[in-house]
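Researcher: Sequence recovery benchmark, item below. Answer with residues only.
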């Protein structure tokens, strides 16, 4: 039977209409296919049984290829990152050793060395504070005084407590001095300030006259309280009654301790009947209370005269050769000039340093010849040694001259010599002292071109290149040789003191030896 075409039926058996599928069930099936792709039916051509577009668009294999982990790892591979920020590269860039070299403490110390900084930025403060004035003055020796009775005629006296005597018995015997039992003249004063608050003053005791040639003693006095009180005179050396005798000399208290060195010459004025010239060193271990046997340095200085100072030796504080002991000495007559004596072991062994000879050397002296004579060394802040020198022949000026050594005293070149017109000088031994802790160089002499009068203290803030004002007049009358000393820096009080020992008189400069205590700031 045929069906009715109007109702859409056919001639076959009529089937009931299928109920439409729920979309959620279809989605669930797709998800199940995604969970296990192997269950999706495939046709021989390799396609899945489900021909719908949805499984093909979300095919797992395609998704895995697009987000394949291996690709991502290659793009952000840790090894590449490590190479870019490799710690070794960073360490090389900020290597501690490089930083240490750039800020090495030694370089910093050289750049901010206290002595250099103080010298560059302290002058104004120092100039305002420096107002020297004499706060105390004492007479230590008066010429013509009595020390001990004279020895019997012909006797040769020795250094007290020492043997053998400094000179053999003299023949024929010589008569006693005009001032029987005393000393005619005290001259050539020296001064040292060992540690512990002591002062040691020494001078020549000329037995017969005020002349340089003749028999002498070396007399010393000691103060344990920086000059407030003084002990009696001690005879450190006595050369008897004949010949040329002893010649001072220089004192040095090295190392800030109690040890004191006393250097002097004998027979330094040939051709006197005295014997070959000699340079002798006495050593005191206790600030001048006692003295050991003399050490003869003639093998070091050779046959030339080496008359120390007069004045003070120094101990270098700065390179080159820190700790080196330096004495300056001079010759005499035709063989004059200045030379240095050096020791690097505390004064146990010595060698000759630089020499500055007179010109012409070995010939009779004439006025205005270049004749460097008595000398005083001091150290400058750059470690060089300056030597203030007596201009014996008034070479080109009636003033001081200065030489300089940059190698610790090993050489002393004529090219280093300069004249100092700001320091008029009547040709005497003068005092010179460097005070690096105050930025000062001090100088003392009779400030006159021809007469030994007007003892003056001068000071300089630029290592002696220029001198401040007219200085401090210590004594306007007759005055001669002088020496300066100061206590060790660690023993300075609130009012720094310096000591000036000098020859002083009313008619003659050789009447007394006087000590002036000077306050640099003017305070008591």
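Model:
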């Amino acid at each position: 039977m045929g069906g009715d075409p109007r109702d859409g039926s056919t001639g076959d058996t009529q089937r009931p209409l299928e109920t439409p599928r729920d979309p959620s069930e279809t989605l669930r099936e797709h998800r199940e296919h995604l969970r296990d792709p192997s269950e999706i039916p495939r046709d021989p051509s390799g396609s899945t049984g489900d021909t719908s577009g949805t499984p093909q668009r979300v095919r797992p294999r395609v998704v895995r290829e697009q987000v394949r982990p291996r690709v991502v790892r290659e793009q952000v591979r840790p090894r590449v990152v490590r190479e870019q920020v490799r710690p070794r590269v960073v360490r090389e860039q900020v290597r501690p050793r490089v930083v240490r070299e750039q800020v090495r403490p030694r370089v910093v110390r050289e750049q901010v060395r206290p002595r250099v900084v103080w010298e560059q930025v302290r002058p104004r403060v120092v100039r305002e504070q420096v107002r020297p004035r004499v706060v105390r003055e004492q007479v230590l020796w008066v010429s013509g005084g009595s020390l001990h009775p004279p020895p019997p005629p012909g006797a040769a006296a020795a250094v007290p407590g020492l043997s053998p005597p400094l000179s053999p018995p003299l023949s024929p015997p010589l008569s006693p001095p005009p001032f029987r039992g005393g000393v005619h003249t005290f001259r050539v004063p020296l001064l040292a300030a060992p540690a512990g608050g002591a002062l040691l003053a020494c001078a020549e005791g000329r037995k017969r006259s005020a002349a340089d040639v003749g028999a002498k003693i070396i007399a010393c006095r000691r103060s344990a309280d920086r000059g407030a009180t003084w002990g009696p005179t001690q005879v450190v050396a006595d050369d008897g009654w004949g010949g040329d005798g002893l010649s001072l000399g220089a004192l040095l208290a090295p190392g800030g301790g109690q040890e004191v060195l006393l250097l002097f010459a004998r027979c330094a004025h040939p051709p006197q009947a005295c014997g070959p010239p000699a340079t002798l060193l006495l050593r005191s271990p206790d600030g001048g209370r006692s003295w050991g046997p003399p050490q003869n340095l003639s093998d070091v200085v050779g046959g030339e005269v080496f008359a120390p100072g007069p004045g003070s030796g120094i101990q270098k504080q700065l390179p080159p050769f820190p700790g080196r002991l330096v004495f300056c000495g001079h010759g005499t007559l035709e063989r004059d000039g200045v030379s240095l004596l050096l020791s690097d072991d505390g004064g146990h062994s010595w060698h000759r340093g630089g020499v500055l000879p007179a010109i012409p050397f070995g010939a009779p002296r004439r006025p205005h010849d270049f004749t460097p004579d008595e000398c005083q060394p001091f150290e400058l802040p750059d470690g060089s040694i300056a030597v203030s020198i007596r201009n014996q022949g008034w070479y080109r000026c009636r003033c001081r001259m200065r030489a300089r050594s940059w190698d610790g005293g090993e050489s002393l070149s004529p090219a280093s010599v300069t004249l100092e017109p700001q320091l008029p000088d009547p040709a005497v031994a003068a005092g010179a002292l460097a005070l690096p802790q105050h930025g000062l160089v001090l100088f003392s002499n009779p400030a006159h071109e021809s007469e030994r009068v007007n003892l003056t203290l001068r000071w300089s803030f630029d290592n002696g290149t220029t001198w401040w004002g007219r200085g401090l007049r210590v004594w306007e009358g007759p005055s001669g040789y002088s020496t300066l000393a100061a206590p060790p820096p660690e023993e300075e009080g609130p009012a720094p003191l310096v000591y000036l020992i000098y020859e002083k008189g009313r008619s003659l400069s050789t009447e007394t030896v006087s000590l002036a205590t000077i306050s640099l700031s003017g305070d008591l």
